[in-house]
Fold each of these.
Amino acid sequence: MNATVTNEAIATTTAQTPGISRLVRRIHMFTGLFLAPWMVMYALSTLVMTHHESVNSFYGSKSPLLVKERELDYSRSFPTNVTRDAIAQQILNDLGMDGAYSVSGGRNGGPLVIQRQHAMPQRRLTFDASMSKITIEREELRTPTVLERLHRRRGYKQPYALEDTWGFTVDVAVVTMVFWSLSGIWLAWELKTTRLWGALSFVVGLGLFVVFAALI
Amino acid sequence: MITFDKINRRAHLYLGLFLMPWLLMYGVSSFIVIHQAWFLSDRPAREVLFEKAYSHPVNLQGANNSPELRAAALEILKECDLGGAFWADKPKPDTLHIDRFSFRDSISLTYSLKDQKLKAERQPMRWSQVPQRMHFRGGYGQPGFGNKFWGLLVDVACVGIIIWVASGLIMWWRLPRLRTWGAIAVGGGILSFALLVWTL
């Protein structure tokens, strides 16, 4: 009886292995195809950041130039106890430019500067309360800057659905990276003809990584 | 005769296995960076290594981490027998701060020119910081063979990721049965990404 059960179990496992392998292989491939743009973006942006001096040498200035888009009258006044964030939010609402932003300036009567964050060229809004004017400048488009900004964007930090969506896609990419690694080992192990060289690649890579983790 | 398909498949496989620790490290560290608040609890206190009278003529004219400031920091690090990667900045006009860091821990040196004092504090290892420190290290700006070789490995990992993507696309295209579903995955990915980048 025991022998029968064992044989059946072996037969079942043997029959299931190709099915599971196939499923893992398919998930490995389709997630890879879907997330390819994220991976290319992260690889290119890392190269841009680690070689920023060489990349910057292609451009005339260190940071992208700001081009004046428009200047408009803005008569709304704010009580002195209103925070800079609240003022920025109100201005962006009034101008139909709601979205992720950061604020600087605006103290001791100085102009309030709002960076309206975009993955593509972002805009800078300067609110001069004493003149009741807002100047909007648009950043010159630079591919390395866009890549770096996408790389650094984490999501979840501001109360906008788009921010959360981006954060979620980054989380998915992160979890998938771990899945690719683990499923990659499994898939490689199944290929008998490449097992030796595969194991060697893995051990050399892991060895180098551990040595560097310990030494520097 | 080795075919192109075979070279492509082998490149995908061997490169993947070799660079797997980096991929795992970037995955784990990115998760920690995004969800920083979940990992803030394990912060051990800094321990003072020494605080002593110290006099060393340094040029504090440069901006934060400028070559001038780094040269001054390097001299102090050498005198303290502390080699390795570092960052130099000026929290005050008469104070030089050096952050000498490794993947495991960091030593913060503060040299006050006014008081002629040098203080060193060690930030002990935090497990959640190790992958983050690895994540943020790249390039060839830090001294020493090890640091520069790590920079090379980061570059290799980046090029490796681009090769994975390219070789993966080729492998998919060579499977006629999966071309339609694969095209949906590729198209869906590109469209989602483009839409997000455009609207974000």
Amino acid sequence: MQTSNEPLFNATATTETAEHESATAVHHGHPDHRLFGFTLFLISEGMLFVGLFVAYLAFRAVATEWPPEGLPELEFTLPFINTLILISSSFVIHQAEGLIKKNDIQGVRLWLGITAFMGAVFLAGQAYEYSIFLSEGFTLQSGLYGGTFYVLTGFHGLHVLIGLIMILTVLARSLKPGHYSAQKHFGIQAASLYWHFVDVVWIVLFLLLYVAR
Amino acid sequence: MNAVTFRIIGVVTGLAVIAISVWYGTNGGWLLPVEGSTEAALIDQLFRAMLVISTIIFLGVQGTILYSAFAFGKKKGDETDALPEHGNVNLEVFWTAVPSALVLWLSVYSYDVTNQVVAVGASGGLGCSVDCPMILQNTAATTGKELVINVIAQQYGWTFQYPGSKEEVGEMRVPKGREVYLNMVSKDVIHAFWVPQFRLKQDVIPGRITRLKFTATTPGEYPLVCAELCGAYHGAMRSNVFVDEPAEFDRWAETELGIKTAQQTQNLLAQK
Amino acid sequence: MQVTQDSFMQEPPQDWRRYFSFCTDHKVIGIQYLVTSFVLYLVGGFLAMLIRAELMTADADVLVNADGDPSLYNGVFTVHATIMIFLWLIPALGGFANFLIPLMIGAEDMAFPRINAVAFWMIPPGAVILLSSFLFGAPGAGWTAYPPLSLQSPVNGDGVAMFPMGMTLWLVSVIILGTSSILGSLNFLTTIWEMRIKDMGIWQMPLFCWSMLATSIIQMLATPVLTGALILLGLDLLAGTTFFNPTGGGNPVLYQHMFWFYSHPAVYIMILPAFGMISEILPVHARKPIFGYRAIAISSMSIALLGFIVWAHHMFTSGTPEWLRIFFMITSMIIAVPTGIKVFSWLATIWGGKIRFTSAMLFAMGFVSMFVVGGLSGVMLASVPVDIHVHDTYFVVAHLHYVLFGGSVFAVYAGIYHWFPKMTGRFLNEFWGKVHFWLTFIGFNLCFLPMHKLGLMGMPRRVANYDPAFVDLNMIVSVGGFLLGISTLPFVVNAAYSWIKGAKSPANPWQGLTLEWTTASPPPVENFERPPVLTCGPYDYGHADHPDAVVNH
Ligand code: HEA
Ligand code: HEA
Ligand code: CUA
Ligand SMILES: [Cu+2]
């Protein structure tokens, strides 16, 4: 990286950036590629879920009885409400992204806070469903039915938790005046993109496990 | 050396390469064990055809490299670059079309042999273990003429069940010229039934039945090798398959297993 | 923990100590990858020497414990392969890419320097975790780790099942190394796609960049599926689930599908960068433009994409249904066409050239020669009836070593001889380079050619003891193997000595035309004094107006 004196560096960088019409934001003096890289990361993370979903479908396709005898049916209403919460929270964080473009930092903090809250409610709903099932003795070890349920919902829940932490970090940073501006708000864009990703994965999961069964 | 002689030499070497390859490919006998089954004959024929093609390509590529090394080495003191040749569309089309044609021919030929040789994939539902009904009654999608044998694999040995006898014996004997149909199940991990002389192999997977069909042609004693890593003594999990004359097989089946296969052999011979 | 770029990088140690620090300079990271992976190659190769020592005799008598149990043999080849793939080839090729990509496209560094350093520093712990498995009974289910064998816990002296520590350590290290590979791919994709200098369009960038683009796409999309498979396998092993355990209704063949969905593309991860390096080296030392630039670039992408729909050619004998075998046979054979385009283009490149027989060129030409042998045996394996006979035999072991050693390792050696002057500012000794080449070439063929016949005649793979009829061939293989082991010694001495005392190298020792040759050897931290300007294409040899090098005004 650059250890030479800053001024020279910035001079050449800005000329270079000017020519580079695509990248607008600048990070450490050269075009900001973090969003491009983060998008690739989400595609890669998506392939992990594709692999797990294919495994679920492979098990489900040959299963004679699903759920196997003695294991509880998946309850529908609570997860359905959870789905509504998660989908709407995607629109909420989208609001925050819109407002930062207008430098409305107050509005951004508000909508980020609401998204975080909705995410927490979603996680609470999942935890509640887990507690019921576990009390009924339906665990990870309950055959393929239990294994696939807990792996899929567990990994998704983990990603929701990571998303929640991202949003709270971005919220904390937004409290520092000037940290985010219309020109530079990668943190918000990334948190929002990640949240949409987690939302899409949940929709697929909800359709497969709770709807198609 | 002008262009004409160059072209003649090129054609001559080309023909020589093809001749050598055909010779080498067609009697690659020293590369393969004895052909012990009808399937082996078919597979060896395909393998030899691939060997011919591969040898032609091999000699072509190695020849070009060696020739270039001798003909196009940098002359002493000549520090200039070679001619700026970036490509040649016709040549590039040629060396895309020819391999494509070769690959097409190879796939069709392989497809044809595959259908004749290995028309039995796996079947039997998941969760079908050793005592699963299908294996016990020796039923299989057979035409009734085949000799159906159950093969049970476990760490680190093979046992066999013949039709009409519950007994698991440690010896596998098959009659020459009669189609044999194997139902195979494993008691623990994945194994693989492989007789190099038959050129056939099929994994034996716990929880399902896998099948293999062959017709032994050359009497003899052949090694039965486990070809899927199954633990510490994988290398020791070997047995033998004896290919007998039909009469000899019937005598063994009756004395050892107490089952009458002689009658089946008679009507089979009658049909031929 | 927002660590500002500058404070973190206050005063990186300038001398050799920077190679042991969390330095974010892509050139330092590239060399860190190359040196670390080469040391691990020697360890993996040492294990191969043990394998060959065992197989010199028909009985299991070397890698056996007190009461003759040869489990250690299974552990040795499992760790041999895991090292060679995840700790030698993938990181070494990543090292070349790290060092060269920014230089070749006129950038100062990778897109994400810190992630770049993090990805490297996952390699040493991954290696330690994998090697420590020998202390607890090494994992013995091959690098493929098929369940249910991989789920069987080892049994101690009096038959009590122990905690499967070896397998657990294998799983953890492969997941770590896989994640490092994913992070690397994100970095390369972003750097190549976004950070080329202004007038270097995708059709003007060097072919090594094309091959890294294709490789990174595979790493990005395929590696996560392996991670998923290993997570499910780990849960079966440690948490009592039954995804792949038939006793609990699990499906062991599903694991094979998930494993090979990654592991075939993984072999193209290991060969595409090698293809890229050969396309860079041949024109420079033959003083002639690469033949058919676009066709080679497109063939890299088509191999990468086709590589995603061929995986079940590793499962022809797993009871795979008929129609599925036919499909995967055809897709696997089609890959011969784009690969053939590359091979023929390389031949056309050296045809009519003015070849300088440097060590780099010898290894590059050796690559083309040996890789074709492996490719042809690959096409034979793609044919179902042939594979039914030779699956899980030494024919496959021969194929994999002809493409992995004759292919990737030959290319890595060629790359080292070619770019060592740029990386260190000093030449490797050419005499010892040629000694290294001929020892390797002879040892390689002596070791792996007889394996074709061993497989065809009936020797299964992964066995510590075999039919005594195969002793003679195995002896030749072992002698060849030991020669290969010995061949690495002159190279190691040459590299260590030359790095310190080798003849000084000018900025452009081979008169190459790609951008890395337009800056100093070794390059300054910011790579280029002034942003470079493209004055000619990467392979414009023989054009009257560019005698040898790009004029860096
Ligand atoms: C660098 C690594 C690498 C590469 C590049 C390849 C390349 C290929 N491989 Fe290989 N392969 C492995 C590494 C690799 N492989 C490994 C490690 C295994 C074993 C894994 C294990 O079980 O442990 C394996 C196993 C393996 C199998 C399974 C064998 C078995 O276990 O039963 C098969 C089957 O189809 C196969 C096929 C192919 C094919 C068709 C190609 C093609 O890409 C090759 C194409 C190249 C050419 C064909 C040569 C050049 C072309 C021409 C000169 C044009 C003209 C040619 C024709 C028209 C034929 N490979
Ligand atoms: C890049 C990949 C790669 C490379 C380079 C190699 C290199 C070698 N391999 Fe390996 N090999 C594989 C990938 C590779 N292998 C894979 C994927 C398998 C399949 C595994 C499985 O079935 O699961 C395999 C399996 C395999 C087998 C089959 C084992 C079995 O099926 O039972 C054999 C047998 O001979 C073998 C031999 C060798 C030899 C002799 C070398 C030689 O080239 C090695 C040369 C030697 C050195 C480079 C080191 C020399 C160093 C010293 C002598 C001193 C230094 C000592 C220390 C530093 C401690 N390999
Ligand atoms: Cu049974 Cu190997
Ligand atoms: Cu493959």
Amino acid sequence: MSKTKETLKKIAIDRVNIELTDEIINSGTSFKDLGVDSLDSIEIIVSIEDELDIELSDETLDAVTNIKELADYLSEFD
Amino acid sequence: MNTQILNYYEVLPEENTFVDIMADITHKCNMTCKNCYIPNRDVPDMDLEKFKDFMSRIAGRCMIRIVGAEPTMNPLCEEYIKAVFENGHRCILLTNGLRLSHKNYVSKLHNAGLRHIYLSLNGVDNDDWYESIDEMRCADKKIKALQNIRERKFILDTGTIIVPNVNEDAPGALLELFDRENINNALMRIKNVGQLGRFQTEADDNVKMDQLVKLCSEQMNISEDYINSFRNKKLYGIYEEKNSILFPLREGNKILNRGRWVKITNWDTDNEIGIPDPNSPRRGRITKDFMLAPTYEHIKLNEGGY
């Protein structure tokens, strides 16, 4: 299991009460269908940056529409 | 008290339908701002155990706004924050930032799970403005708080009340301050004076909504047309709020608080009921007796008291 994926799962449960499984992540479920609204998304992003001590690109994040795309983007930091 | 005109009601937490709930955890304050909706300092702090119980009973997932007077004056402030997260809610701390000028205190808040802070910056970095509006020359402390918030990567909202003939240049000054301090992700809330509790500007003399738009347009180098194109859009894609306009400074930015965003809010009370945003289904407030009431209606009914 990659570090970034583990962190994503932990943040999802800790910050927005969503239990992410590998199956859910790989299915490419949209944030909306996961119940993640715009307030949640900023909370997730800030927490990821904080936990992994990285800076995520606004341009890339604007293009991310589902949880798989976010996980794939984060894997660049593994 | 005229409950009929105010359309006032109270519900149990289990019956909650609000999404944004104010918890005034203390009425103490370390400032004496001229605009304050709860200027009464004699009310005891909110009972922590009752607050915990309340959090466990609220229907739905809410944004809990830990507020005061000045919430950091409550010595147990972090415990209230922890209780919010333990019950699965969202949390934002609304603060004047004086205590957040100390790194240790900011770390305590971070350790409690807090990630979202609203910092009032009525005077931006200008001590004369702070003295005129908040009766304290506190620009240095505000800027230190801003730096500490940035360092710990909190989600940042700032709040600036525009007072006529005092700080009408604040939107531009705020951008300059953000440039200097490398604040690249933030929501700048620009509002006029609300005539609730203690205030320094009557509605007739207030900077009106269209003027707020004009000031932001001129000082933030964006067109009024661009700002007005966001009127009547749902805030965060979720809430209907007739008295606010929310927009990103960089066109096309989709994620709130990534990059710089602005929210212009009309706090004028020049309507029949005498409150901003009457009958809002969004905003609730925890009452003294741990019930839930519509925020502005409750504040109006308790003006000078709770």
Amino acid sequence: MTTTTKPTVVLVGYGMVGHRFLEALADTGTADRFRVVVLAEEPRPAYDRVALTSYFSGKTPEDLLLGEPGFLDTHGFELHLNSPVAEIDRAGRTVTTAAGHTVAYDTLVLATGSYPFVPPVDGKDADGCFVYRTIEDLHAIEAYAAGRKVGAVVGGGLLGLEAAGALKGLGLETHVVEFAPRLMPVQVDEGGGEALRRTIEEMGVTVHTGVGTNAIVVTDGAATGMTFTNGQRIDTDLVVFSAGVRPRDQLARDCGLTVGERGGIAVDALCKTSDDAVYAIGECALAVDGRVYGLVAPGYEMATTVAQQLAGQAAKEFTGADLSTKLKLLGVDVASFGDAFGTTPGALDVVYSDSRSGIYKKLVVTPEGALLGGILIGDAEAYSSLRPLTGTGTPLPVPAESLVLPAGLGAPVSLGSSALPDDAVVCNCHNVTKGAVRAAVTDHQCTTVPEVKKCTKAGTGCGSCIKLLSTIVTDELEASGVEVDKGLCPCFAHTRAELYEIVRVKRIATHRQLLAEHGRLSGEGCEVCKPTVGSIIASLAPELPASGHILDGEQAALQDTNDHFLANIQKNGSYSVVPRIPGGEITPEKLIVIGEVARDFGLYTKITGGQRIDLFGAAVDQLPLIWSRLVAAGFESGHAYGKSLRTVKSCVGSTWCRYGVQDSVAMAIHLELRYRGLRSPHKLKSAVSGCARECAEARGKDFGVIATSNGWNLYVGGNGGATPRHADLLAQDLTDEELIRLIDRFLMFYIRTADRLERTSAWLERIDGGLEHVRQVVVEDSLGIADDLEALMARHVDDYQDEWAATLADQDRLQRFVSFVNAPGVPDPSIRFTPERDQVKPDLGVLATAEDLLATLSADLLEIR
Amino acid sequence: MTTVTATARVELQTPEGWVAVCDRDRLTPGRGVAVLLPDGSQAAVFTDRQGGLYAVANRDPFTGAYVLSRGLLGSTPEGRVYIASPLLKQRFDLSTGECLDDPAVSIAVHSARLG
Ligand code: SRM
Ligand SMILES: Cc1cc2nc3c(=O)[nH]c(=O)nc-3n(C[C@H](O)[C@H](O)[C@H](O)COP(=O)(O)OP(=O)(O)OC[C@H]3O[C@@H](n4cnc5c(N)ncnc54)[C@H](O)[C@@H]3O)c2cc1C
Ligand code: SF4
Ligand code: FES
């Protein structure tokens, strides 16, 4: 529409590096000097390819998108999706898309990435053969895997193992076939490959190394197996090729730009190709050091180099990069950095290897003790502090041996962030130095890690540097005299765990007393500390002692609205009612009662995700009426409102299921009844499956139980929700009694030490020593507190009473269930419903304007009590 | 027989004058109750730990729901007493009606006294 005299920059390829180029251009502040046209082959804007596999653990394609919403519009960048470029005319300075659309350029930036290499074996194009590079590939793999049993990955490198993890996650029996004699041959040495292999095999992935793929066996057009160069054959329904990548340089070849002998668009240190008007960056480029970099960090550096040149600023040359990586492959930490193979003349190794637990650590040092590189498998904690020290030439501050020995075997050493020089690169992905992070704190007033991330971009790539980032930020704040506030809220300088100890030891039974004696503010308290302290008092009630009913005395004033009305508030101010249905098992009679209650009170009824039934739309005054019917029929509160035990889901188990090996329903009911009513830092969920098929989804729960032919396996720290996490195995083949003892201890230890609103998953990842520490405390009783924890739980079980039955039995507690204290019996006029699919839904129209509801009331309606 | 002192009553100021709404005993420090006023409007009445008495409109302006009486009371480090909405947790100063989390929003405040 408008004619422009601005020079046009055309970017071909909108992947990770292309996106970084646009960001870097925006950062220079000169984006508005250009017309920028982005031609992208994929159907969606740039996304985080590095995190591709997280799609299988619940990330949506939208979650993976890069850049803030509105980023392109803010800077006026024009994006054309589904527009692959088919031709470059260098003489005429135009590019033409496959659809025939031609765009003229002044500067052309190629960021076309790479394509997966598929070895030329017979049958490679059959149905069921895939590659692993784009979201579309994942969609296709996922759809094809449904209902199929076996999958094989060709290639045991970094990407191959990611793909294997994905196939495993899709429930397939998984094989990995690697031509080299070990897994991840590029990153790890023989010892590391062996440790990796053992751990990965333990997860049930079958590893074939030292064999090539001969052919894909095809039946009726679809893959059904594969044969190896050693003559062996396996059956498989699906094959993912992950045998390396090749630069996408065809466009460049076709228009006569110089390309490398083994591929890649040749560029100089400023990323310029053999044509001055054309740059190439990222995985499609052959850098000046003769390498094609298959990692994102070097690509980001190239992107910055080109953006700076366009902006007319001094550009940092790209002459090569570090190939350090840290990954979590199939849950195993793998890190490799610097001169990992010890090729520097005179290099020495320090190796620790424990094949039993799959740990392998190697550091490569100079004779003087300066760090050159290393490999860490199974435990890569030290990566973020070691990598920045690599190649600095200064001897390590502690002997290298002490850095590879596991805690407990040697004197514990940690390299504090103070060991790092300012020019050490802390975040590899964005090339951010420790000095830049410190400056964010001292010069830009950042006081939290999220602020520092925003300010420096550090930590926004692979995320492996975040732990180090947070120590640097904390150290820096403390050094500048800023107290890092770990307090629960403005009222208390203590954490929740500290308050728990104070309440327990001093037997303080009210928030008022706790605030007066231990608060940093006097006053009312706040909506954060009140429910938190209320929950601590409820957890410890029998010990303090305090009333075991949360609506007694001061406790009533501390509860959030849900606990206060023993129901869940909904958007129009009505409440939902969830009776407990232990283990999801229910008699027809009880189902009929629920149906009758719902019908009589006009409640919207829905089966929840927790194997029980939710009744919505009750007004405050109806709650006691509804519950008196439910209690009479033998129902109890389901605590859907509390930070407490929700449901223990079950599968049908050995009673009916042909595969079941234990009675999962009986165990689920037993657990649900044992822990019902237990107040905790966050909600608690559980499930019991009758065999390894795991129909109850126990590994998505805070504590999950899976039957084995010898008893029960206990898993802890699972989570659904926004950040799903599979629970970790805590102990195996337990008897009923052992299982319950360990769960008692686990829950009480969690309640004692977790932060407010910290699910067991986040707690397990946060606390020092993680799962191993919890195992020591809970299974081995390393702190000698197991008896106390069990005794606390026993008191809880003895003291349990149904909150609703106890409320109905007490006039004082019942008194608060009125809509209007001066007009009992008058229904709240704002709570109205409209029909939907044969039930009701809230009428939100009546809430839109306050005046509509006004209707003068006759004075005698308003009585004073 | 000795005379029993009647418990104090909470009264709110309305266009119709002071209206008694409930006995003081019905208020739990730190929590509220909802009351219906003669014109059909709803107010939320609170008392804090110091015995202060507060009344505001019961409607949560962020959601339109009549629920503020069911929130929790708190005080800021400066000592401003507020109610946190039970729905999306925005806080409103009980003396001025100002929303502490969004200065563009406020709620009506009623004068309250013990009669
Ligand atoms: C009713 C139900 C949805 C349904 O219709 O199925 C539901 C409804 C709510 N969920 Fe849920 N969740 C329900 C099952 C689940 C499940 C599935 C499960 O339990 O197996 C999950 C994932 C599993 C998990 O928690 O790990 C789930 C993960 C969440 C989360 C995210 C938790 C997390 O750690 O990320 C929240 C938010 C929170 O708690 O902070 C949440 C919060 C909520 C709240 C309480 C939000 C709120 O404050 O209004 C919803 C109100 C319940 C109500 O009004 O009754 N709900 N919610 C389900 C009730 C189950 C039950 O019978 O008790
Ligand atoms: C599963 C997986 C895990 C990975 N893990 C890591 C990791 O842990 N660490 C790490 O550093 N790296 C990792 N990588 C590699 C990393 O993703 C790449 O290095 C990075 O994406 C390279 O960015 P790029 O922009 O050069 O290429 P890409 O991100 O591939 O983007 C290139 C884009 O150009 C488009 N394109 C190609 N030709 C044309 C054309 N003619 N016209 C228009 N558009 C075109 C493509 O469709 C693509 O969208 C991983 C890769 C995968 C697949
Ligand atoms: S988990 Fe096992 S026992 Fe339970 S229903 Fe599924 S297959 Fe049957
Ligand atoms: S090193 Fe990857 S985000 Fe910092």
